[in-house]
């Protein structure tokens, strides 16, 4: 005769294992998504820095022209 507690524990363990597998899959997807977001943010930072440089150069050019009376 089987132990009913052992059978119940076995069922619970199977459920736990299944849920941990699902959690692992979700974490893999989350990690992938975070990597994509980080890459996008790096690109935004680069564009922002380039734009800031262009803007500064434009401001300097306008200031120089104003000082020369252009």
What do you see in this structure?
- The protein has 70 residues and is mainly α.
- The protein has one domain.
- The protein is 91% helix and 0% strand.
- It has one helix and no strands.
- The longest helix has 64 residues.
- It is rod-shaped, with a radius of gyration of 30 Å.
- The N and C termini lie far apart (101 Å).
- The model has no long low-confidence stretch (mean pLDDT 88).
Write a short abstract of this structure.
By secondary structure, the chain is mostly helical. Helices cover 91% and strands 0% of the residues.
Q: What coarse outline follows from CA principal-axis ratios?
A: rod-shaped
Helix content: over 70%
Radius of gyration: 30 Å
Please work out how many helical segments DSSP would assign. Answer: 1
Oligomer: single chain
Q: Calculate the mean pLDDT score and round it.
A: 88
Q: Give the end-to-end Cα distance, rounded to a whole number of Å.
A: 101 Å
Written as H for each helix and E for each strand, in order along the chain, the element string is H
Low-confidence stretches: none
SS class: mainly alpha
Give a count of the beta strands, DSSP E runs of length 2 or more: 0
Tell me the β content: under 5%
Total domain units: 1
The biggest beta sheet is recorded as: none
Subcellular location: Chromosome, Centromere, Kinetochore; Cytoplasm, Cytoskeleton, Spindle; Nucleus
GO cellular component, one term: mitotic spindle
Protein name: DASH complex subunit DAD4
InterPro entries: DASH_Dad4
